[in-house]
Structure formats: structure tokens, C-alpha cells
Design goal:
Layout: E1 2-14, E2 20-32, E3 46-53, E4 62-67, E5 75-82, H1 86-97, E6 105-121, E7 125-140, E8 143-159, H2 166-188, E9 198-205, E10 214-216, E11 240-241, E12 245-255, E13 258-270, E14 275-276, H3 283-308, H4 317-343, H5 349-362
Parallel strand pairs: 2-5, 3-6, 4-6, 9-13
Antiparallel strand pairs: 1-2, 4-5, 6-7, 7-8, 10-13, 11-14, 12-13
Helix pairs in contact: 3-4, 3-5
């Protein structure tokens, strides 16, 4: 250790026999090497890849008050750090004492707080406090994905003459944090979505009973003119109109380390947006409007197939589903627009028949409200 003298008077203490002694502050600096001590547990499907020191103050890990050798009246402040620094010291301890199976999940430790500080407690005693806060997270391409934080520490009061084993305190606190995280991983590794390895998608069709204003697509529930309950738009050039849409409800749960995503598809048509002139209510025009609804069903089926064709992971599945839904909604608009343009809004009977056949070929084989897409 190297001793550095600070040349200033920092205070006065009153001793037990009421005598005053001048207290000069000396700073001792040095390093601590953590002793090897194999941990008594096997990591639960992870290894520690990195340790990062993100403390706001990186001025060592311990500040101790000690008597100068051979002098019972003058104390010093001993400032210590882990050999190589906090990140290196903890990394070395872990690599020497903890199994590192790199075929498992890579975990980073971010040191937020790690400091043992002593202050005088009267003339003959010292108050010590160790504070520790480690954040554990998964190593990702974009950095560290937070999992859980550990806060620990200890408090003690000792005689100024008594030695303090600071290395043992620091080592014990590190071991406590690692044991805490291992227990957390054992509890959460099959239930926490952040730790999941795979994604499984399950599609269903949304149904509503009894039926309200909204019609949800089913092969055994075709449109009828009774469903056209909306007001006829002012000055419209068209005979009838419908506004079908696609959407979905989504929820997920983790089952044995797999994220199971349930997507309840909604191919829907509100009756309040369906309208028709009285002169248009015949079977031919009803078929034209039904085909608009069928097109929405086709796009919903394509949405499903495109999702199932993707390489979904726990990190990307939500973004892929959202982006594919937006793409499918644009596909719905484009197909509806092409259908009306080519059939002349149903006035070109030959092209209407061709579209009828095209739509029938693309409709899912089991387009019922209770069946999967």
C-alpha cells in the first residue's frame, strides 16, 4: 500500500478522559484481491458474460478508518479498490468460482452501487456500512435487457482498534447477489417472457353471441338485406355499400419456456354501415356486396399464413405481427379497390362472374365462425 499525507487539520475529537487530541487525516490507498470460493450452486440455464461498472462515483469500493501503525492518537482513511477495478475484480471472481456454460443464456451484471464506508462513532468506535445494488439482464445485440435488480448490504459497529476483514465482507455480498439471481432464474426461467426461447402462434376466429350490430364472418352466416341498416349517403352514385374490416385480439402466456400467442381474428361488418337503395335489393347486388365481405375474409387468411411463415422469436414476434397487420390492411384496401374497378361496382356481369370464381378459389376451405383460419 502507498501512503499519501493530506496536509490539513480536519477536526478535533474529545476522548474518554476528556482530553483533546488533534486528528490529522492520512489517506492510505491499496487494492483487494477477492479470494476464490467456489459457489455451491449450478447456474440455472445462464452464464455471466460481462460485468459493467456504472456507479456514479468510481472512487474505490471501501473507505476505512484505521489507526496509524504505532500511534494510538492519530487515525487515517484507507481507500481500497478491487484489483483491476470493480468490473474486472468481480468478473475474475465469477470466472474462477462459477460454472460458465456458454451454450446457455448470456447474462450481464451492471454494478449500480458497491461501496463500504466507515465514519467515526465517538473517539473509539467506527460505524461501517456496505451498500450493494446489482442489475441483472440478458445480453442482447442492442445492449442489456433488464431482468431483475438485487439490493443488499450490511452494517456494523467496531472498535477503532479492531481489524475489519473488508475482503470477506465484499466477497460475501457478491456471493449473496449471485445466489439471489440464481434463485430468481430457477423460479422464472420457464415462466418469464424475457427468458422464453420459442414462440408459438394459435389462431382462432372471434365470435359474438348473441349477435349485435357487428357481423363476424362465418360461411353459414351470409349477408341478407335485413343487415343493411345504415343511412343512404346523400347524392351517392352507387346502389349499395358495405364497409368490411379485419382486426384481431391478442394475448400471450409463457408455457414451459415458450411464448404461446393467441390471435383471435376479427373479420367484421357493422350493420349500421351497410346501406342500399330499395331498387337495388336483388340477389345479384346482394352477391356483389357479399363478395366485399368475402375479400376481407381472404385477406384475414393471408395475414395468418404470412405470420406462420415468419421466423418468430421472443424479441421480434410483436413487431412482425404489427407490421404484417398494417401490410394486410393495405392489401385489403387494394383488393377491394381492384374488385370494384374491374367489375364496374358490379355493373359488368361477366367480370363480376370472374371475380366470383376468383374469390371462391381463394376463400379458406373452412370459413366458419368456430373454425380456425
Amino acid at each position: 500500500m502507498q501512503k499519501t499525507l493530506r496536509n490539513y487539520l480536519i477536526g478535533w475529537w474529545l476522548s474518554a478522559p476528556a482530553m483533546l487530541f488533534a486528528l490529522y487525516a492520512f489517506a492510505w490507498t491499496g487494492s483487494i484481491t477477492l479470494k476464490d470460493e467456489p459457489l455451491n450452486f449450478k447456474p440455472a440455464d445462464y452464464y455471466v458474460a460481462n460485468v459493467f461498472d456504472e456507479r456514479s462515483k468510481k472512487n474505490g469500493v471501501a473507505q476505512l478508518i484505521t489507526l496509524l501503525p504505532g500511534n494510538k492518537l492519530v487515525t487515517s482513511t484507507q481507500q481500497l479498490d478491487l484489483q483491476g477495478g470493480v468490473a474486472v475484480g468481480i468478473s475474475k471472481f465469477i470466472s474462477h468460482n462459477m460454472l460458465q456454460d456458454k451454450s446457455t443464456k448470456a447474462v450481464n451484471i451492471v454494478v449500480k452501487e458497491f461501496q463500504l464506508t466507515e465514519i467515526p462513532l465517538g473517539a473509539t468506535r467506527v460505524d461501517g456500512q456496505l451498500k450493494l445494488r446489482f442489475a441483472f439482464g440478458l445480453e442482447k445485440d442492442y445492449g442489456t435487457q433488464p431482468l431483475v435488480e438485487y439490493k443488499g448490504g450490511l452494517h456494523y459497529v467496531r472498535s477503532l482498534n479492531a481489524a475489519v476483514d473488508v475482503e470477506a465482507y465484499l466477497r460475501s455480498s457478491i456471493k449473496g447477489s449471485l445466489q439471489f439471481f440464481n434463485n430468481w432464474m430457477q423460479t422464472n426461467h420457464t415462466e418469464n417472457a424475457k427468458l422464453a426461447q420459442n414462440v408459438k402462434i394459435i389462431f382462432t376466429d372471434y365470435t359474438e353471441k348473441p349477435e349485435g350490430d357487428t357481423i363476424y364472418y362465418a360461411a353459414n352466416r351470409p349477408l341478407s338485406w335485413k343487415d343493411f341498416q345504415g343511412k343512404i349517403p346523400h347524392n351517392t352514385p352507387y346502389a349499395a355499400g358495405v364497409m368490411p374490416s379485419i382486426g384481431y385480439n391478442q394475448h400471450a402466456k409463457v408455457v414451459n419456456g415458450t411464448i404461446v400467442v393467441y390471435i383471435d381474428m376479427k373479420t367484421s361488418l357493422p350493420k349500421s354501415t351497410c346501406w342500399a337503395h330499395p331498387f337495388a335489393k336483388d340477389d345479384y347486388n346482394l352477391n356483389h356486396e357479399q363478395r366485399h365481405f368475402d375479400i376481407a375474409r381472404i385477406i384475414a387468411g393471408q395475414f395468418k399464413q404470412k405470420i406462420l411463415a415468419q421466423q418468430l422469436t421472443p424479441d421480434n414476434y410483436e413487431a412482425i405481427i404489427n407490421m404484417q397487420y398494417l401490410d394486410s390492411y393495405r392489401d385489403l384496401y387494394e383488393m377491394q379497390k381492384a374488385y370494384d374497378k374491374e367489375t364496374g361496382n358490379g355493373t359488368r356481369q361477366q367480370l363480376q362472374q370472374e371475380w366470383n370464381e376468383k374469390i371462391d378459389r381463394q376463400l379458406p376451405a373452412k370459413a366458419t365462425g368456430a373454425a380456425a383460419l
